[in-house]
Design goal:
CATH class of the largest domain: Alpha Beta
Structural class: alpha+beta
Distance between the termini: 51 Å
Strand content: 15-25%
Shape: globular
Number of strands: 7
CATH superfamily of the largest domain: Methylated DNA-protein cysteine methyltransferase domain
Length: 185
């Protein structure tokens, strides 16, 4: 649902997200917060977010339970791909950020791409740094696999969950050894 407000003679649009429901999930890499509304999963974030006391029911609850099921299978080593036909997601941000998100979804489990390769894949070969920024702003970690995007030469670089989590996820997917500038020169 959108609302409009006049502020200093400018029309500003913002979305009221009062239909979002959060769920905390314990994982081998720490707690993650899942966020959904009645239409799609919109967040998989590291750490514990705010959780309402309300029961998780209806379409949002079904989406959260499906996300939890698929993530549980992923962490157990029973799932290598997320079934987005059963788990609708909502990419957010600018068109560029969404384009990077769609490109990340194309990286198969067990493989990595560099920021430069991602930039070339979306037709913006000079935008490797901007791709890095879009990966950093990815609100649906793990499912939209920003952890599969690495620096030039395969070096591990920044990750919202921390480099140790990125390393764990890549090892879990069978990608490592990946060169890590801080530990494995």
């Amino acid at each position: 649902m959108s609302s409009f407000v006049i502020f200093q003679k400018r029309l500003v649009s913002f979305a009221i997200m009062d239909k979002n429901v959060n769920m905390i999930m314990e994982t081998p890499v720490g707690d993650i917060t899942l966020t959904a509304d009645e239409e799609a999963l919109s967040g998989v974030c590291f750490g514990r977010g705010a959780v309402s006391d309300a029961a998780i029911t209806g379409p949002a609850g079904e989406i959260l339970r499906e996300a939890q099921r698929q993530l549980t299978e992923y962490f157990a080593g029973e799932r290598r791909e997320f079934d987005l036909r059963r788990l609708p997601i909502r990419l957010s941000g600018t068109e560029f950020t969404q384009q990077v998100g769609r490109a990340m979804l194309m990286i198969p489990c067990g493989e990595v791409r560099t920021y430069g390769e991602m930039a070339a894949a979306i037709g913006r070969p000079a935008a490797a740094r901007a791709v890095g920024g879009a990966c950093h702003r990815n609100p649906i970690c793990i499912i939209v696999p920003c952890h599969r995007v690495v620096g030039a030469g395969g070096s591990l670089t920044g990750f919202g969950g921390g480099l140790a989590v990125k390393q764990w996820l890549l090892r879990h997917e069978g990608v490592l050894p990946v060169k890590n500038n801080r530990r494995n020169k």
